[in-house]
From TrEMBL:
Bilayer-crossing regions: 24-46, 159-177, 183-202
Pfam families reported in the protein's UniProt record: PepSY_TM_like_2
PANTHER family documented for this protein: INNER MEMBRANE PROTEIN WITH PEPSY TM HELIX (PTHR40115)
Keyword Acyltransferase: no
Record's keyword terms, sorted: Membrane, Transmembrane, Transmembrane helix
Name of the protein this chain belongs to: PepSY-associated TM helix domain-containing protein
Length: 203
């Protein structure tokens, strides 16, 4: 009776790597599906932002900053807290300016901007708040513009997921012997075309 030969250690490791790559590729692809769809759709809306940005809503608010926040020097943190509390201002403070007659605070967020102009020394203020539509907000999220640390971390995680999906797909291709050469050639052509386009546009 002929005894079945055992696979060599190298063949066993190749099989394990192939199985692990297939498992990772499938499940990472499913996890990344929403991310890929989001950046694909918002890539189109961002490229046609002039047609799809929608209407902006502008609101104006007035009031008076508490005297303790203005004297002897403007307390930006206290001013910010009052404006957020009274007018639900959102976004991050991206700029502050102290002039002899006026204090200015600028707030920015995805699809959002607000500028507060405060008279000195009386503390009377005016806020101009601009809210963009949903598509403009999504475009800002795509760009990662003034979206805060939390969204920045989501973008980083998305980049890691998509890189792993690409690498595990390439790893799988290496084990498909009949398609390996043609697949690697196409991958190299795709990379070369992307580099050439980037260099042409950057010139």
């Amino acid at each position: 009776m002929k005894q079945a030969s055992r696979p060599s250690p190298g063949a066993a490791w190749r099989k394990r790597i192939a199985v692990a790559s297939r498992w990772l590729h499938i499940y990472l692809s499913m996890i990344s599906f929403g991310v890929i769809l989001f950046f694909a759709v918002t890539g189109l809306t961002l490229n046609h932002a002039d047609k799809l940005s929608g209407m902006q809503r502008v609101a104006r608010y007035t009031g008076t900053i508490a005297a303790t926040a203005m004297q002897p020097q403007p307390d930006h943190a206290a001013i910010e807290a009052q404006l957020r509390r009274e007018h639900h201002i959102r976004g991050a403070v991206t700029d502050t300016r102290d002039d002899p007659d006026q204090v200015t605070l600028s707030f920015k967020g995805a699809g959002y901007a607000a500028d507060a102009f405060i008279d000195r020394p009386g503390g009377k203020y005016q806020i101009i708040e601009t809210r963009s539509g949903a598509i403009a907000t999504l475009n800002d999220l795509h760009r990662g513009a003034v979206t805060g640390r939390a969204w920045s971390r989501i973008i980083d995680a998305s980049a890691v997921f998509l890189t792993l999906v690409s690498l595990t797909g390439l790893c799988l291709l290496l084990f498909v012997y009949k398609r390996r050469s043609s697949g690697l050639i196409l991958a190299a052509i795709g990379i070369a075309v992307a580099v050439l386009i980037a260099r042409f546009l950057a010139a």
